[in-house]
Amino acid sequence: MIEDKVLCRCEEVLESEIREAIQAGARTLHGVKIRTRAGMGLCQGQTCQRLIARILAEETGQSPAEILPATYRPPCRPINLSFLSGVEG
Ligand code: FES
Questions:
Q1: What is the CATH number of the domain that holds 74?
Q2: For residue 39, which of 12, 58, 77 has the smallest C-alpha distance?
Q3: Is residue 77 domain-resident?
Q4: Quick check: CB of 45 below 6 Å from ligand 1?
Q5: CA of 80 to the centre of ligand 1 (A)
Q6: What pLDDT digit, counting tens, does each position of 17-29 carry?
Q7: Single pTM value for the model
Q8: CA of 30 relative to ligand 1 center, distance in Å
Q9: 76 lies in which domain range?
Q10: How many domains does one find in the chain?
Q11: Ligand 1 center to residue 78 CA distance, Å?
Q12: Ligand 1 within 6 A of 37 CB?
């Protein structure tokens, strides 16, 4: 029996889940991300992105250089409109 590994520690996504997402049609890091949440965690893919890219290349036959980085968004926080306007409230 082959032991499954956690590839995305932040979102607790297993290697088998990454491979299943690719078999279900994911061809990009973004495709894997939206199917599994891998890369959406606290580190925003800093830890898992390269591992997932390697599996994606292996499963799809693409060269690792062909795999584009996923899009990441900075964490959001609510702010007061006064901050944007420059007027103290
Ligand atoms: S390890 Fe995947 S988002 Fe942090």
A1: 1.10.10.1100
A2: 12
A3: yes
A4: yes
A5: 30
A6: 999 999 999 999 9
A7: 0.78
A8: 13
A9: 6-85
A10: 1
A11: 24
A12: no
Q: State which amino acid sits at residue 69.
A: P
* CB of 51 sitting under 6 A from ligand 1: no
Residue 15 neighbours by CB under 8 Å, 6+ apart: 4, 5, 6, 7, 55
For ligand 1, the distance from its centroid to the CA atom of residue 7, given in whole angstroms, is: 8
- In-domain check, residue 73: yes
Confidence of residue 79 (pLDDT cuts 50, 70, 90): confident
What pLDDT score was predicted for residue 80? 87
Residue 1 lies in a domain: no
Q: What is the distance of C-alpha 27 from the center of its chain?
A: 13
32 domain-assigned: yes
Spatial CA neighbour of 54 closest among 66, 40, 42: 66
Residues 40 and 84: beta-carbon distance below 8 Å: no
